[in-house]
Write a structure and sequence with these properties.
- The complex is a heterodimer of chains A (497) and B (114).
- Chain A is mainly α and 497 residues long.
- Helices cover 77% and strands 2% of the residues of chain A.
- Chain A has a domain at 265-465.
- In chain A, strands 1-2 form a two-stranded antiparallel ribbon.
- The radius of gyration of chain A is 22 Å and the shape is globular.
- The two termini of chain A are 24 Å apart.
- Chain B is an all-alpha fold and 114 residues long.
- Chain B has one domain: Orthogonal Bundle (Helix Hairpins).
- Chain B contains three helices and no strands.
- Chain B is elongated, with a radius of gyration of 20 Å.
- Chain B starts with a helix and ends in a 13-residue tail after the last helix.
- The chains are: A mainly alpha (497), B mainly alpha (114).
- At the A-B interface, α5 and α6 of A face α2 and α3 of B.
């Protein structure tokens, strides 16, 4: 099935085209139309999945355990669809918010190379290939985060670079040790070998290295420090892109590895994951409530929300995994949307600082509505997406008797609500500060300014209204992850180890 | 041979970790290079070293165990190339940062925290 490679090939071709394009108007059109094409392809792939369950493609014609194989199962496909929807919204957003014509051509080049990396990471079935896609993501994100060359951006870029480089070196070391022990890099064959392996202690050495590597990417508790000190520096479009996709790639890799083949020492790993999930939720939540810059509040929020996903992985029942996947979907959409609204506020008031703005509810009720949707979705108010995501996770936690971490999750939801209310009351309700009195009157929002936010807002609502249907597919994905015999069989096609 | 390389990997990791903890950004990058090379060697060592038996299968060699495993070498080649690219980017970033701020001191990087 050649179409499996399209989510990687399309961004690659678009990137090559965009390098040659000088005119920024053309670059914008190619960016938006290319993202729409990507959306269409990933929905088509999902439709194909309905009768086949798992689709594979052996790259270069080499058979599975020897060559690189691309695998699409429900988890990959769901991630592809949601990321392409988010990417479509961001590509429209970038048209109006990536300032400077010169910048936007450059932006779209690295935008698509980042997406190529993300889609590659979601579809690959080979551990080393995953490493290569992580590096592709890393290099493109380095360029995106320093695009603009201001002092703050360079500083944030250095911090981002430092910890993420160390993370990918951990990844490479873990990969080397894993190859030494098993002699293969194919995920399905690794699962075949390691799932029946008794001596967990030998596998744990590489599992820990992988955990650190993906933990840095996903920004879990003791490893998240690069995120809040770099995410608020670049252009808001780039921040929204990173918030929507980057940490989720780390989370995806954690879910994939710790359900497929690092399943020997379950007691140790699941307890560790639950403890880390608890700390991640609480530190992110508390730190978010201490800040006054919308971008910083939302950045700390990313960390807090990653905690929920890790909690789902730590509980490790089909329901909990389904909840974690649902939460990932919800979070990609709502978080990106929240950053969009922060960017819109910045465009019209010139600041991200909550102390300097106020009274936006009077000036633009429409903007208030746009903010309320992602804010309430993140806080978990029914009938928006966040409620069902949290509900599934908390239900799974209580069913499996993890009362402590469940209690932490419920309390963190309060913290989330608190910081959302903080943005709401500071930016929208309170009177504008004295020195900012000059800017009175209605905001003139153009339709195209807010279109991306409307798209994601509607998605957020639909995700809540049709929660049952979405949940059905995430449950399907979770079942595939917990019972990977079909995955192994399809990928290896009956090859003996 | 494995023993010597294993010790070398250890030394490179130690030196790299020491350099990472220095205050200068340039020394930090040198630390990254050390650790990256140590990791490459680690992957290279992963499947053991077979001396003088390249992985060309002809009629004389029938047993796979007798020849060197080509995969880790291919992996390391890829990793080295990626490593080069990243080091070049970090050096360019460091140069740009130095141009803008005139400092090489990591302790000065406090504007984006807190």
């Amino acid at each position: 099935m050649t179409v499996v490679a399209f989510p990687i090939l399309i961004p690659f071709v678009l990137m090559l085209i965009l390098i040659m394009v000088r005119s920024s108007i053309w670059a914008k059109w190619i960016g938006v139309l290319g993202s729409a094409l990507l959306c269409f392809i990933s929905i088509y792939l999902f439709a194909l999945l309905k009768n086949k369950e798992i689709i594979t493609l052996n790259m270069g014609g080499w058979r599975a355990p020897f060559g690189i194989v691309l695998v699409i199962d429900y988890l990959s496909s769901i991630m592809l669809i949601i990321s392409s929807l988010v990417v479509l919204a961001i590509s429209i957003y970038a048209v109006y918010y990536m300032d400077g014509n010169h910048k936007s051509t450059k932006f779209y080049v690295f935008f698509f190379s980042l997406i190529m990396g993300v889609n590659g990471a979601f579809t690959t079935g080979d551990v080393f290939n995953l490493y290569v896609w992580f590096e592709v993501i890393l290099i493109s994100s380095f360029v995106l985060i320093t695009l603009g060359n201001s002092k703050e951006q360079l500083e944030g870029g250095i911090k981002y670079m430092a910890l993420n480089l160390i993370g990918s070196l951990f990844f490479l070391a873990g990969l080397g040790l894993l190859y030494a022990k098993t002699g293969t890099m194919n995920m399905a064959q690794l699962a075949q070998i390691l799932r029946n392996h008794e001596q967990a202690i030998f596998i744990n050495s590489s599992a820990v290295l992988f955990f650190i590597a993906f933990g840095i990417k996903a920004a879990v508790f003791p490893l998240f420090f690069w995120l809040p000190s770099s995410y608020h520096t670049p252009n808001i479009t780039v921040t929204a892109l990173f918030a929507g996709l980057l940490t989720k790639v780390g989370v995806y890799a954690l879910i994939r590895f710790f359900t497929l083949f690092f399943v020997q020492d379950q007691q140790f790993w699941h307890n560790l994951l639950l403890v880390i999930a608890g700390f991640t939720m609480v530190t992110g939540g508390i730190a978010a409530s201490a800040h006054n810059d919308t971008r910083r509040i939302l950045s700390y929020h990313i960390i807090s929300q990653v905690g929920y996903i890790i909690m789902g992985l730590g509980i490790f029942t089909p329901l909990a995994i389904a909840g974690a996947i649902y939460f990932t979907i919800h979070n990609m959409i709502a978080k990106t949307n929240a950053f969009f609204v922060a960017g819109i506020i910045n465009k019209f008031t010139g600041t991200f600082n909550l102390k300097d703005i106020g009274g936006l509810l009077k000036r633009s009720p429409l903007l208030a509505v746009l903010f309320v949707i992602p804010a309430l979705a993140l806080a978990g108010v029914p009938p928006l997406s966040g409620f069902f995501a949290k509900f599934i996770l908390i239900k799974a936690g209580i069913e499996d008797k993890h009362y402590l971490v469940t209690a932490v999750a419920v309390l963190t939801a309060m913290l989330t609500l608190y910081s959302m209310i903080k943005i709401w009351s500071e930016a929208f309700l309170k009177k504008p500060p004295e020195f900012n009195k000059l800017e009175e009157g209605k905001l003139k929002l153009k339709f195209l300014d807010i279109l991306p936010s409307i798209i994601l807002g509607i998605l957020s609502i639909l995700l809540g209204v049709f929660a049952l249907h979405v949940f059905h597919y995430t449950m399907e994905a979770a079942n595939q992850l917990i019972e990977p015999s079909k995955y192994i069989e399809t990928v290896l096609q009956g090859t003996k180890p | 041979m494995e023993i010597i390389l294993a010790i070398l990997v250890g030394i490179l990791y130690t030196a790299g970790a020491y350099m990472l903890l220095r205050r200068s950004i340039l020394k930090f990058i040198i630390g990254i290079i050390f650790i990256s090379n140590a990791t490459n060697l680690l992957v290279f060592l992963a499947s053991g070293i077979t001396r003088g038996k390249p992985a060309f299968v002809n009629d004389n060699v029938l047993k796979a165990e007798a020849i060197a495993d080509p995969l880790p070498q291919a992996l390391v080649l890829t990793a080295i190339v990626i490593g080069f690219g990243i080091v070049v980017f970090t050096l360019a970033l460091k140069f740009k940062f130095f141009q803008v701020t005139g400092t090489d001191d990591l302790d000065q990087l406090k504007q984006t925290d807190n």
